[in-house]
Design a protein that fits this description.
With about 120 residues, the protein is α+β, with helices and mostly antiparallel strands. It is built from six helices and five strands. The radius of gyration is 13 Å and the shape is globular.
């Protein structure tokens, strides 16, 4: 059963400016996300898509960013596509959901779509 859906659009050029702050980067993104983004030629594109995924998850959860936070989730890139990962506290708070994630980018925009499915 679908428990929630969420989508978010992030402006890549805005993220490019935001990630100039190491404080922002460390507060919002996991080490895995940071390493992945910085290993690519356009890090801000990958930071923006990960940020959009976190925001989409917050909307799908119904808690919002302030109720859920950004540090409890991260995007893992796999051979079959991106996967939304949840830390133990957030997974329990959300009721152990299956989390579906789709991300895309074009021009100056990164988009993420999340569906939470109750098991």
């Amino acid at each position: 059963m679908i428990a929630g859906i969420g989508t978010d659009l992030c402006v890549i050029s805005r993220m490019r400016r935001a990630v100039e702050s190491e404080y922002f980067v460390r507060r919002v993104f996991s080490e895995e996300e940071i390493e992945y983004a910085r290993s690519n030629t356009e890090p801000s594109l990958h930071f923006a898509s990960a940020f959009a995924a976190k925001e989409a998850l917050a909307k799908a959860s119904g808690f919002g960013v302030f109720g859920m936070g950004l540090a409890g989730s991260w995007v893992r890139r796999t051979k079959t596509g991106p996967v939304m990962m949840l830390n133990d506290d957030l997974r329990i708070k959300l009721g152990e959901p299956k989390c579906w994630l789709s991300m895309s980018h074009d021009g100056d925009y990164a988009l993420a779509f999340v569906v939470l499915e109750k098991r």
